Each structure stands twice: as structure tokens, then as C-alpha cells.
Amino acid sequence: MHFGFEDAGSPFADLIAGTGQTPFQYRLLIPLLARAVIGLADVAHAHPAPRALFFLSDALFAFASLATALATLKALALTPPERLAALLALGVILGADYLASETLNLLQVYDLPAVFFAFLATHLLLRARLRAFYLILPPALLNRETAVFLCLLFVLTQRARMPWPRLAAHITAQGLIVLTVKAALLALFAHNPGPGAVSLYTTDFTAEGAAAHRLRDLRLLENLRLFLSPRRLLHMSSAFGFLWIAYLFALKTLTHPFFKASAWLFPPFIAVMAVAANLDELRIYSELIPPLFFTVTLGWREWVRRGEGTTES
Q1: pLDDT digits (tens, 9 = 90+) for 226-246
Q2: Is the backbone peptide bond immediately before 23 cis, with ω within 30 degrees of 0?
Q3: Cβ atoms within 10 A of the Cβ of 172, count?
Q4: Which distant-in-sequence residues (6+ apart) come within 8 Å of 103 by Cβ?
Q5: What is the tens place of the pLDDT at every residue in 138-188?
Q6: In the chain, N or C: fewer CB atoms in 10 Å?
Q7: Are 28 and 111 in contact (CB under 8 A)?
Q8: How far apart, in whole angstroms, are the C-alpha atoms of residue 43 and residue 220?
Q9: How many C-beta atoms surround the C-beta of residue 33 within 10 A?
Q10: CB neighbours of 313 closer than 8 A, spacing ≥ 6?
Q11: Is 208 helix (H, G, I), strand (E, B) or coil?
């Protein structure tokens, strides 16, 4: 298992050196941190160092995600036994999406940091710490472009908390941040090998080749074919450790307005990924993990407490 370390499109050492193929090179945050640790001069001759940093980064961000989730569970006033049960469920989710054998071979250095940023954004938005949210948005975007869905999470969860003119100002500000980060990355790596922002999958990295592959690289047809394979369908069904089933039931009992609103993140996220990514790569669902996890946790708690109330009656 190579954990994406020597992925054909984006060897980690190349990303650290800034010479990786685009669009992989745009996922810059962890390569920048690694570069600061080991120094650019050592990258070409110190592959063990980047490899160690790859695994260290994954471990640190996995624990940071658990710690942030625990802080949010405390803010939601769950009891210690409830928090323990919830963390065990989160372990199942992370294990299924990032440690299962098929996913492990595809795991990239920016995947688990994306989970952390999603949990941190959820925590900050729940607590209405909007300034802090703006501080984490640029590094989240530098880590992986799917962080743009954190902006949508902002809109969904804050629209009931503020008047429309103020919300529109936030949408404008976040749109400018996203465009600024994207424009800076495009300019910074304009001469790197790769198709740039055009395609994730083309093997012809010339401008003409990238343009010719635009339609082919819309993944919708390939993703629809996945549903015809029982093996791939079972693999996709294992997303979130099969807890998406519990999520559907939890939505019926959930009363928390923040997480009821966050449920609307799922349709646009899956629609975009159906066109732009491979739905059977479970590592892509990072931004959906916190809404699903907290909805399952709170829905389960409300179901249990209702049962206890019925028994006492």
C-alpha cells in the first residue's frame, strides 16, 4: 500500500518542491508545511523525510479531528458516556472512509486535513465564531478545493441567524476569498506540468490535449456505471461505515436547527462529485463527515431519551 505517497499524478516530494502536476499541486498547505520542516534543498535527496511527514501529518490531523469533534460534543451538552459512544462511531466512519484497503491505497496527504477543517468549521459556525471561520477558510482552501463547500455550510447554517443583507455580504466576502486563492494558485503554478484547472484525469498535458479531454473527463457516466457493479455498489454503500443508513433515520427525530440545516449540504456536494470525481473513492466525502456524524449522534440521543421518557411514564 502506498497511501498515495508515490501517486503517479502527484508524488509528495514533487509537491513539496513545488514541481508537482496540476491540479494536485494546488493542494498546497501540507506540502508548504513539510517544506518548512525539511527545507527545499533536502527534498530531492530525502524521500524518507517526506514519507515520514506524510504519515505524521495524517496521524496529527486524525487526532485533531477527534479532538475538535469532542469539543463540539461537549458544546452540545452530551454526557461523558454519550461522548464516548459518539467517538467510537466517529472511529468507524474514519476507519471505513480512510483505512479500508481500497481507500488506503488512494489516500492523499490532503484528505485527513480536509476532515479536520470540516470539523473545525462546523464547531466555529455552531458557536457563531464567524471571525475565526474566516481565519481558517484560506488554509482550508489551500489544502483542498472542496473546502468551498464550507462556504455553503456557512450559508445553510447561518441564514436563520442573520438578516439577508448581512448574509449577502458574507457570501460576497467568501466568494472573493475563494477567487483570490484560486487565482493565486493558477498564477503561481502556471508553468507546472499538468492540465491546470481544466481536468483531473487527462493524460495529455498539452493545452490542446486538455481541451480535447474536457467532455470525456466529466465523470458522470463513469459514476453511473458504478451502480451496475455489485462489488462497487457495495463498496460505495460502505461510506461512513454504513452509518448513512442511521443518518436517514436520525433526520426524522433530529430537532437541532443547525444540523437540520446542514443536511442540505449533501445534495449539491454529491451532485458536484458525481460530475467531477470518482464516487467510489470514499476519501472525497470529508466535508460531509461532520454533518452526518453530529446528526447521527444527536438523533440517537433524542431517540434514546424519548425511549427513557416513555418507560418512565
Answers
A1: 999 999 999 999 999 999 999
A2: yes
A3: 10
A4: 97, 281, 282, 283
A5: 999 999 999 999 999 999 999 999 999 999 999 999 999 999 999 999 999
A6: C
A7: no
A8: 38
A9: 16
A10: none
A11: helix
